[in-house]
Write a structure and sequence with these properties.
Blueprint (H helix, E strand, L loop, with lengths): L2 H27 L1 H7 L4 E6 L6 E2 L5 E13 L9 H8 L3 H13 L1 H4 L4 E7 L1 H9 L7 E10 L6 H4 L2 E3 L2 H6 L8 E3 L2 H5 L1 H4 L4 E7 L5 E4 L15 E3 L3 H10 L5 E7 L4 E8 L4 H4 L2 H9 L9 H4 L9 H11 L13 E3 L5 E3 L9 H7 L2 H12 L7 H14 L21 H8 L23 H12 L3 E3 L4 E3 L12 E3 L7 H13 L19 E7 L7 E8 L6 E7 L9 H14 L5 H9 L5
Parallel strand pairs: 2-10
Antiparallel strand pairs: 1-8, 2-3, 3-4, 3-5, 6-7, 8-9, 10-16, 11-12, 11-20, 13-14, 15-17, 18-19, 19-20
Membrane topology: Single-pass membrane protein
Main location: membrane
GO biological process, one term: cell wall organization
């Protein structure tokens, strides 16, 4: 026998030994593999974990759990049963049972030996009666699960909801099984991996007749469920509830942020989903989804609204940074700004001319038209494309035109035009500042979410930087993402924010007759600084806008209020914001008549 033949024989022997050893290990030694391979000899009873709690910044429970009961069925174990008795227990029709059984037969290969949900969230009384009579229903069983409970009557759109997994979801997420629940929106979705916990199971043996006998190996292979982790949010539960109270019968949103940390204190979308319906969302889903007021649509992070006059602050800061104006610059206002010899962008009556801070205080349209013209027609730039791109860079540095990167899953980035936007509409070189003059007052092709506007208020409060707004403060055994602690500096020098703050302070705290547009937001001793906005709305009355922060030095809260179809920002949005500021900073309200009026007024068209 030559050397090559010997090598070949030795190789074959080695391969055979490896195969035999592996088969021995799998079939004789590795009991866990045997359990898995001979699945049909065992019944796996799932033990569902308790979902993690959601707490507010003060340790109050926002979302907890309560017992819920599902009726399960293992199709392979089904035998003839008393259908009428089952229907009586759960007040269901025989046709429902027949359709379910037919569906199990149709999908028997896919279901295999699994248990699937027959009825969800039955009452405790029904569950008790079923357990007493369970011998009548071979193949059926009951399982206790936890369902969400809400101590505060607020926050449904913020917390989100859980729902049973769909077949489409299971195809993409094989670690879940039929009958499992998953976070579908809000914080429940964002932090699903943290909140869900880990399922356990008990393995029961079957005999040759497919009857359930006893736990396998006395329960040695059972696995305990691991509860989900609790998360501590940045939300103030009392403030969230109070804000929703003020926003009832209104379409819009409120966002409040702690400027120094970027922590979101409240995030309100109105009208929202009723908290009483969210725990059993499947029952009310069609009703909610067909509501013309779209309660499932979270306006705080998904609506790209025109910011209106609050955007004048942004243009003013850019003008100061670019050196096309100073704090002392004055411009005339004769009822508005003539951007062509015959066309005027109108303004309300006020004294004229004004310096920079007083232009913010009185919200002069003409002043900021001159500012935008100076920015875009700055001779330091070769053409409009170049100057407009520079303008856009400044605006983007303040968080606009992009997602801020919050931990809320549905956040949108809004809209911010580019030079190419106008080149496509008007042709390159065929447009100028007068063509886009509406941008000077926050109209035109710009769209911002209320979260963007609250972030602007926080940026001004911080004199030039913001920390990415976020909703979760801490998670056990986890570190908060770095982007929620890092300062994002704007392209504007911090020294230019002082005259802006002065103008916002005067807008709220000026004496009667001096022209401040936000005096309804004044609260003695709180030094609220704010800016009103009234954004044009093609679908009805103007939208009311207001941003503010307080106190002036070392601010503790920044707020944006946006109310659709309400009219002037100083009339509606400013009082709501000031009540929220007062509630947060003092815990009391000194203007109960205003509070009652704001809460009870219906502004839904």
């Amino acid at each position: 026998m030559n050397g090559k033949s010997q090598i070949l024989i030795i190789g074959v022997v080695i391969v055979c030994l490896v195969l035999v050893t592996r088969l021995f290990f799998l079939q004789i030694v590795d009991e866990e593999y045997k359990i898995s391979a001979e699945n049909n000899a065992y019944k796996y009873i799932t033990i569902y974990p308790v979902r993690g709690l959601i707490l507010d910044r003060n340790g109050n429970i926002l979302v907890s759990n309560k017992n819920s009961y599902d009726i399960m069925v293992t199709p392979v174990d089904l035998q003839p049963f008393d259908t009428a008795a089952l229907c009586r227990i759960f007040s269901i029709k025989k046709e429902f049972v027949r359709e379910k059984i037919a569906g199990y037969k149709k999908n028997r290969r896919k279901i295999g030996y699994q248990s699937v949900v027959f009825l969800k969230q039955v009452s405790e009384r029904e569950y008790g009666v079923f357990l007493e009579q369970s011998y009548k229903f071979p193949g059926f069983s009951g399982v206790s699960k936890s369902m969400r409970d809400y101590p505060y009557n607020a926050g449904a759109n913020l917390f989100g909801y859980t729902t049973e997994v769909s077949e489409e979801f299971l195809e993409k997420n094989p670690s879940y099984r039929m009958g499992d629940y998953v976070g579908a929106s809000g914080l429940e979705l964002s932090y699903e991996s943290v909140l869900k916990g880990e399922k356990g199971y008990t393995i029961m043996q079957r005999d040759v007749h497919n009857r359930i006998l006893s736990p396998l190996a006395g329960g040695a292979y059972d696995k305990d469920a691991v509860p989900g982790k609790d998360i501590v949010t940045t939300i103030d539960g009392e403030l969230q509830q109070y804000g929703e109270y003020l926003m009832q019968n209104k379409i819009g949103s409120v966002v409040a942020i702690e400027p120094s940390s970027g922590e979101i204190l409240s995030l309100i979308s109105s009208p929202g989903i009723e908290i009483s319906k969210i725990a059993n969302i499947s029952k009310y889903y069609n009703q909610i989804i067909n509501d013309p007021l779209k309660p499932m649509f979270n306006r705080a992070v998904m609506s790209a609204y025109p910011p209106g006059s609050v955007f004048k602050i942004v243009n003013g800061l850019i003008g100061l940074q670019e050196g096309v104006i100073t704090e002392e610059s004055r411009f005339p206002c004769r009822g508005g700004y003539y951007y062509t010899p015959t066309r005027i962008l109108r303004c309300h009556a006020h004294r004229s001319p004004l310096d920079f801070s007083h232009a913010i205080m009185m919200s002069c349209n003409a002043y900021f038209c001159y500012v935008l013209k100076g920015i875009l027609e700055n001779p330091e730039y070769g053409n409009m494309d170049e100057s407009f791109t520079k303008w856009r860079d400044y605006v983007e540095s303040m968080g606009f035109g992009k997602k801020l990167g919050s931990d809320f899953p549905a956040e949108l980035g809004g809209t911010l035009p580019t030079a190419d936007t106008y080149n496509k509409i008007y042709g390159r070189g065929s447009w100028k500042s007068s063509t886009v003059i509406s941008l000077s007052i926050g109209q035109g092709e710009i769209g911002t979410t209320p979260l963007h506007l609250a972030n602007l208020a926080a940026t001004i409060a911080n004199r030039g930087y913001y920390i990415t707004p976020h909703l979760v403060k801490s998670i056990p055994d986890s570190t908060i993402c770095e982007r929620y602690t890092k300062r994002n500096y704007t392209a504007i020098d911090s020294k230019y924010f002082d005259p802006v703050v002065e103008g916002m302070y005067m807008a709220v705290n000026s004496r009667p007759g001096e022209g401040g547009t936000a005096t309804r937001a004044k609260v003695e001793g709180l030094d609220i600084c704010g800016k009103t906005g009234t954004a044009q709305n093609p679908h009805g009355k103007d939208n009311a806008v207001f941003i503010c922060f307080a106190p002036r030095e070392n601010p503790k809260i920044a707020v944006a209020v946006y109310i659709e179809n309400a009219g002037f920002g100083g009339t509606w949005a400013a009082p709501v914001a000031s009540l929220i500021v007062e509630k947060y900073l003092t815990g009391t309200i000194t203007r109960p008549e205003l509070e009652k009026y704001m809460a009870e007024t219906n502004l839904i068209p």
